[in-house]
Design goal:
With about 450 residues, the protein is of the alpha/beta class. The chain contains 18 helices and twelve strands. The longest helix is centred in the N-terminal third of the chain and has 37 residues, at about 110-145.
């Protein structure tokens, strides 16, 4: 965030004053945008506005004081500087009490504008950095409870999510079915500055092509047969928040073009309308396919892929992080037992070995279903084959993962003290030392 250049939004209905303000700022290498009304300013300032607002008090329609109140409802930390006429000093002083950062009386020197803008921009930069650090810290602590696992792959994933959640960058989540892509998307939203706004999810593969256009972009009344009234699409519902598009590879090519335009221009047209509607949402897409390969084949737009692929999160399949299986199973078992209002059954060694030996083609989703059956007293070993039919090499691999998981848990409980961990495990300290080296647990 510290590398993101902040801007000044100047709200002034007098075109000469507006031009003068922007020129004075530009001469000092301060970027700015200009609008002529408070209503337009409100449309420009979203949940993650990177800058400050400088507004005249006297405006057509909504005035500067009303704008101040509305902006503070959106973001109480946003610095708002008011421009007043000679007779508006008392009004400006009251505005300062109501939360305005500063005010300038017309006519003012360009140097005065630049000085106030620089101070306000510095405050904005600091407040945004502090907010980001707080959210990252809270996110790191909460992520361990939501994205469970002590495997290196899961530790790296949690760290990456904590680092990128509080940015406005689009994210592409790649992973097999059942690896938890929607959960990761929700974490990205919940630990960002957009958390107070909507998280809107849509499975692009779960709708017929005839309906997906209206579902995503919305439509006007009578836009097509059966459209009796206006419908707001998912993108507009996610304004200020996050839009999660699962199975993005299933989106028709003609709609991929429309989505690309929204990502580029931050505005959309409902079906049956020519009016452009500004939108501010972060897009989080998920896929179980190779979009780059689909782009080369022409079945997915490469330009859309590159727009979505600003940040990529790759979710490992469960078979590649076997040391997490028992921890996850225990977690799901406790959840299921609470839901079914019955005590959680004990996990014996045979069950644990079977769980570790299975390849889990359905990943975490399949593991959760098995935990629910186990909580109800149903056997884990079924005709579909968990465990006993595992081939010998795979079983040996599972036993190693099981052993590594037990050793790591013991070391964590005893703060890395080998003597105490060895005593708790009932093994010689030298044996434990050899196994720690073998599994890279030091």
């Amino acid at each position: 965030m510290s590398d993101e250049k902040l801007r000044v939004l100047v709200v002034e209905d007098d075109p000469h004053v507006l031009l003068g303000c922007q020129q004075a700022l530009a001469l000092e290498d301060i970027d700015s945008d200009g609008v002529a009304s408070a209503e337009e300013a409100l449309r420009r300032v979203g949940a993650d506005f990177p800058g400050i607002v400088v507004s005249d008090i006297r405006l057509p329609g909504m005035d500067g004081l009303q704008l101040l109140a509305r902006l503070r409802e959106k973001d109480a930390q946003l610095p708002v500087v008011l421009i007043t006429g000679h007779g508006d000093i008392a009004m400006a002083v009251q505005a300062m009490r109501d939360g305005a950062y500063d005010f300038m009386e017309k006519p003012f020197a360009p140097e005065r504008l630049v000085d106030v803008a620089r101070r306000a921009l510095e405050r904005r930069r600091l407040s945004r950095e502090i907010g980001q650090l707080r959210r990252q810290l809270a996110g790191r602590q909460a992520l361990e409870a939501r994205l469970i696992g002590r495997s290196p792959a899961m530790q790296a994933l949690r760290e990456l999510i904590a680092n990128v959640a509080d940015t406005s960058a689009n994210v592409l989540i790649e992973g097999e079915t059942g690896t938890g892509k929607e959960l990761v998307a929700r974490c990205l939203h919940d630990y960002s500055r957009r958390q107070a706004k909507a998280f809107v999810a849509l499975n692009c593969g779960g709708l017929p092509e005839s309906l997906i256009d209206s579902e995503i972009f919305g439509h006007e009344a009578h836009a097509f047969t059966g459209a009796g009234k206006r419908r707001i699409g998912k993108i507009e519902h996610a304004d200020g928040g996050s839009l999660f598009l699962d199975e993005i590879e299933s989106m028709p090519l003609n709609l991929q073009i429309k989505l690309l335009r929204v990502l580029q221009e931050h505005q959309l047209e409902r079906l049956g309308s020519n009016q452009l509607i500004p939108v501010d949402c972060r897009v989080i897409a998920a896929t179980k396919s190779d979009l780059a390969a689909m782009g080369r084949e022409g079945s997915f737009r490469s330009d859309l892929y590159y727009r979505l692929n600003v940040i990529t999160l790759q979710l490992p399949p469960l078979r590649e992080r076997r040391e997490d299986i028992l921890m996850l199973f225990e977690h799901f078992l406790q959840q299921s037992s609470l839901r079914f209002d019955r005590p959680a059954p004990a996990i014996d060694n045979a069950t644990a070995a079977s769980l570790m030996a299975h390849d889990w083609p359905g990943n975490v989703r399949e593991l959760r279903n098995v935990a629910e059956r186990f909580a109800l007293g149903l056997p884990v070993l079924t005709a579909s084959g968990l465990g006993p039919d595992a081939s010998e090499p795979r079983f040996a691999e599972a036993v190693e993962a099981f052993e590594r998981s037990l050793l790591q848990a013991a070391l964590e409980r005893h703060a890395g003290n080998l003597s105490q961990a060895a005593a708790a495990l009932g093994m010689a300290k030298t044996t434990l030392f050899d196994k720690v080296k073998k599994y890279g647990l030091a």
